[in-house]
Amino acid sequence: MQFNDLAAQQERIKDSIEKRIAGVLDHGKYIMGPEVKQLEEQLAQFVGVKHSISCASGTDALLLSLMNYRVGPGDAIITTPFTFIATAEVIRLLGATPVFVDIDPETFNIDPAKIDAAVSAVKNNDSDLHPLPRQHNNSALKLKGIIAVDLFGLPADFDAINAIADREGIFVIEDGAQSLGAEYKGKKACSLADVGCTSFFPAKPLGGYGDGGMCFTNDDRIADIVGSLRVHGKGGHKYDNVHIGINGRLDTLQAAILLSKLEIFPEEIERRQKVASYYAELLSAIDSIAVPKAPENYKSVWAQYSILAQDENHRQCLQGKLRDLGIPSAIYYPKPLHLQKAFASLNYKEGDFQISEKHSNRIFSLPMHPYLKQSEQEQISEALR
Ligand SMILES: *Cc1c(COP(=O)(O)O)cnc(C)c1O
């Protein structure tokens, strides 16, 4: 059994992919070729935004978005500790400071009700209000923005998050690396904040055969700056440089492959819905595990199907049982970011974000992809039972 069956998908679109790759080899425009523009146009339309700017990875999409806002030392960015390292890594990379806010126990996304306390703590430089990272010589941080993550493909609560940001005059970035194709109150994921970022890493819902990413925005100015930063901060032409940027372009070959994958993506999203509802049907009869549910008005794209065991021992036992039967499973994420060695200088401690910590010990993900068979799901359910 496969955790994520990319071979079954390739089988369906092999001809299309080979044709498009041959097309790129023919025209030879390997950097910023016509397929890049085509993919940007199609995905802007898919997401329902004015601009999309492709780039080399989801991490670069986040980095470019933060660079666009001139984020740097002394700035505080509120985000979740229960995510992939890239979300907070880019904040630190620019010398800014992640201020973590714990998650909602059911959606696994940042809990908007807890953001207010973090805002007050930063503004008053008072860690009695909310756990704050240690600052160099204890100087106050300046609150600049929020990065909210759509974990496992479920959008965060952006109405609540954007309302706080509007009140405080700060920006919001949507880390939609796992959620392209999801929906929130009738709007598409990656269109829910000032900038939306996604990833085309092979295992993501729309994955390429290598690295890639994209920024989405309705703001002309942001689109302009991110587009420039992606190509060494270029101005009017290649050798006119107006910003300090990066080499962050998407390869033409990846864009070509993604165009083929996009042909069947809407159908794959629907297949994912079916797989997720069948899991819910099968697994909700098992009392000792908690199954994920998308709240009303939310549509998850089910990048992962993550369930909660009772505790670490129970998880180990369930995963062991699956492994014995040749069923793969994975843990996203075994250690919350505030306890990672890479962030040790922030001086967070165990107990600061207890839901994230407890979930890290209980959570694990089952095989999830558009081609998972009902018989396989029944086998998984039986094993867990
Ligand atoms: C995958 C992922 C990223 C990074 O994307 P890459 O394309 O691998 O750089 C960022 N944030 C989240 C939540 C992710 O899952």
Please describe the topology of this protein.
Layout: H1 6-27, H2 34-47, E1 51-55, H3 58-68, E2 75-79, H4 86-93, E3 97-100, H5 115-124, E4 142-149, H6 158-168, E5 171-175, E6 183-184, E7 187-188, E8 195-199, E9 213-217, H7 220-229, H8 252-283, E10 298-299, E11 305-308, H9 312-324, H10 354-362, E12 363-366, H11 374-384
Parallel strand pairs: 2-3, 2-4, 4-5, 5-8
Antiparallel strand pairs: 1-9, 6-7, 6-10, 8-9, 11-12
Helix pairs in contact: 1-8, 2-8, 3-4, 3-7, 8-11
The protein binds pyridoxal-5'-phosphate.
Distance between the termini: 18 Å
Percentage of residues assigned to helices? 25-40%
The structure class reads alpha/beta
Whole-number radius of gyration?
21 Å
Instruction: Provide the spatial order of strands within the biggest beta sheet.
Output: 1-9-8-5-4-2-3
What global shape is seen? globular
Strand content: 5-15%
Kindly report the average pLDDT value: 97
Query: Which ligands accompany this protein?
Result: pyridoxal-5'-phosphate
Low-confidence stretches: none
Order of helices and strands: HHEHEHEHEHEEEEEHHEEHHEH
User: Main beta sheet: strand number and arrangement?
Assistant: 7 strands, mixed
Give the number of helices.
11
Number of β-strand runs: 12
